[in-house]
Amino acid sequence: MDSLSYKTIFANDATAKKQWFVVDAEGQTLGRLASEVAKVLRGKYKTDYTPHTDAGDNVIIINAEKIELTGKKMTDKQYVSYTGYPGGQRFTNPQALLKAFPERVIEKAVKGMLPKNRLGRQLFGNLYVYAGSEHKQEAQQPKQLILNK
């Protein structure tokens, strides 16, 4: 019996087959979009998924300004930040954040679904979010990723 044929194969930076995907966020629900994008960034859908390596794909999200939230989350949900100074706790809601920085709403949702360590920060670098329908990664020839199927 050949014992070498039963070895588990782990993906690493050299063997990872990274692809580029583009996702249209128009009409999508924020949480459902973010969870699917986090799975693709992590590479969990691949057969050679390895938890400790960046074997996931690169994702481009367009039309971030047209994302939807269910219920009263647009006004009731709060994002908390802290300046570092006494009394420096700041609150904002998705409605104000979408008006000022439409990309950050999706970035915050996806970042919250990634690991909270060095790998998570590296995976977050594979996400590109744009407010409009144009993006700068045409040279990578991204494939369209349909999430509602």
Description:
This protein is of the alpha/beta class. The strands form two sheets. A four-stranded parallel β-sheet has the order 5-2-1-6, covered by helices on one side. Strands 3-4 form a two-stranded antiparallel sheet. Helix 3 (94-100) crosses helix 4. The chain has helices at 30-42, 73-76, 94-100, 102-111, 118-124, and strands spanning 20-24, 58-62, 79-82, 89-92, 127-129, 143-144.
Summarize the structure.
This protein is an alpha/beta fold. It has helices at 30-42, 73-76, 94-100, 102-111, 118-124, and strands at residues 20-24, 58-62, 79-82, 89-92, 127-129, 143-144. Helix content is 28%, strand content 15%.
**Which structural class do the helices and strands define?**
alpha/beta
Number of helices: 5
Largest sheet: 4 strands, parallel
% residues in beta strands:
15-25%
CATH superfamily: Ribosomal protein L13
Q: Number of folding domains?
A: 1
Q: From the alpha-carbon coordinates, what is the Rg to the nearest angstrom?
A: 18 Å
Q: Mean pLDDT across all residues, rounded?
A: 93
Quaternary structure type: single chain
Say what the CATH topology is.
Ribosomal Protein L13p, Chain: A
